[in-house]
Q: What sequence folds into this?
């Protein structure tokens, strides 16, 4: 169990990303995602082995191949499905979380509680990459440079991989480039609703897709994301005007001719996760940081 600490110790105002980024090993605690995907930490994380029969972890120098046991098992399971689908030899897996989760010194705002993972769109032809190769090799884009369509790399196998990834009941949602979902929606049927509802458009994500798992059963300190994918999709598949916005107004935002009302000087500014101090995170993250 993860005990609850009371008072914040000295140093609570230190930048959380520096403190969590300095930890090279998981905490010796029972597994528990703490807080929200973009404001929290991860107790008792486990490491995804650098290589397996159907996967390789990439960018090992970042030390972000740690996560909740459910996430690690999900990635192993999906990599086996990927290989069976003919997606190369399995999966190249990007960032999951730091050894103890928490805000990162660079990159992601989320990936903080061990339930997020990036999966490369590059189908592995080899699973014996050296550490140096894993630093230099790059994934491939599935979205065109103008962001409006998929590239020639997209095809039935990529579609099948995304469907397999989203169909798993452990998955809450998957983030992809809008062009990918638009392409899938062209041929979607009501039978696709159960999984396609989970596929959500977001900026970027042209060379990977981002899997987010649900809070595990009994994880009392984990905050479920709201609104749900069913609410976002209004009970449908999300193949609607809210999806097309990403390739229309988002890319050609109308100029605002009205003068914006200045904000009061004393109005607090929203912090970026890299600005979080330990005082901004759930109090149980103090235990995670202090654990052996």
A:
């Amino acid at each position: 169990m993860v005990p609850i600490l009371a008072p914040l110790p000295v140093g609570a105002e230190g930048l959380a990303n520096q403190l969590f980024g300095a930890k090279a090993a998981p905490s010796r605690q029972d597994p528990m995602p703490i807080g929200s995907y973009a404001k929290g930490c991860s107790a008792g994380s486990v490491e995804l082995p650098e290589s397996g029969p159907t996967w390789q972890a990439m960018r090992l120098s970042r030390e972000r191949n740690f996560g909740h046991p459910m996430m690690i098992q999900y990635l192993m399971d999906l990599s086996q499905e990927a290989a069976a689908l003919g997606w190369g030899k399995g999966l190249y897996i990007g960032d999951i979380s730091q050894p103890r989760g928490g805000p990162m010194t660079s990159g992601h705002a989320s990936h903080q509680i061990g339930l997020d993972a990036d999966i490369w769109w590059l189908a592995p032809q080899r699973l014996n990459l050296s550490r140096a190769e894993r630093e230099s090799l790059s994934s491939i884009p599935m979205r065109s440079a103008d962001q409006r369509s998929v590239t020639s790399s997209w095809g039935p196998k990529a579609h099948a991989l995304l469907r397999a990834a989203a169909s798993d009941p452990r998955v809450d949602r998957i983030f992809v480039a809008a062009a990918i979902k638009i392409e899938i929606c062209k041929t979607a049927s009501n039978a696709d609703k159960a999984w396609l509802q989970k596929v959500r458009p977001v900026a970027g994500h042209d060379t990977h897709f981002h899997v987010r798992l649900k809070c595990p059963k009994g994880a009392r300190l984990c905050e479920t994301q709201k609104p749900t994918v069913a609410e976002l999709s209004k009970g449908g598949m999300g193949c609607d005007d809210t999806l097309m916005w990403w390739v229309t107004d988002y890319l050609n935002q109308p100029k605002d001719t009205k003068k914006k009302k200045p904000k009061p000087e004393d109005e607090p500014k929203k912090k970026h996760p890299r600005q979080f101090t330990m005082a901004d995170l759930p109090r149980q993250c103090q235990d995670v940081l202090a654990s052996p």
